[in-house]
Amino acid sequence: MTVNDDDTVAAVGKVSEALEYVERARGHLYSFHQLMGHADLLLGDACDELREAGHDDVADRLETELVGRNVLHGRWTFQVVEEFDDGYWTEFRDHERRVRDDLVGGERHLFEARMKDERRTHGRSGHEARP
């Protein structure tokens, strides 16, 4: 059943907007993953340099306690990313697509498309409906 009344379009738009925020959060999660991985590699390099400077005890302590340590119980960041991707993110995307399929014929950004049509100056260069 496809329904294109304004209330339905607005509600479906909010579901899609929520997914966009989840996508942004996912990007931050990937940034966290990369930042933590880089920090671990830098710390390993620092341990090598500390050892070369004669500070074996400090280097050993850092290597033993921090280098390669899990960031969450039992997990490196790649495992956090994979669990998020395979679980919440995939589930949310599937539901958002199903809402669009069920209510607005699968169209994406229908709310924004209507807004564009209302706000653009018809017939004016730079205000075309489509490329």
State the end-to-end distance. 29 Å
Question: What integer value in Å does the Rg equal?
Answer: 24 Å
Topology as H/E string? Answer: HHHH
Shape: elongated
Number of helices: 4
Biggest sheet details: none
Number of domains: 1
Beta-strand residue fraction: under 5%
Low-confidence segments, given as residue ranges, are none
Number of strands: 0
Mean pLDDT comes to 95
Which structural class best describes the helix and strand composition? mainly alpha
In which range does the helix fraction lie?
over 70%
Notes on the protein architecture:
The chain has 131 residues and is mainly alpha-helical. Helix content is 73%, strand content 0%. It has one domain (6-117). It is built from four helices and no strands. Helix 1 (6-52) runs antiparallel to helix 2 and helix 1 (6-52) runs antiparallel to helix 3 (77-104). The protein is elongated and about 75 Å long. The mean pLDDT is 95.
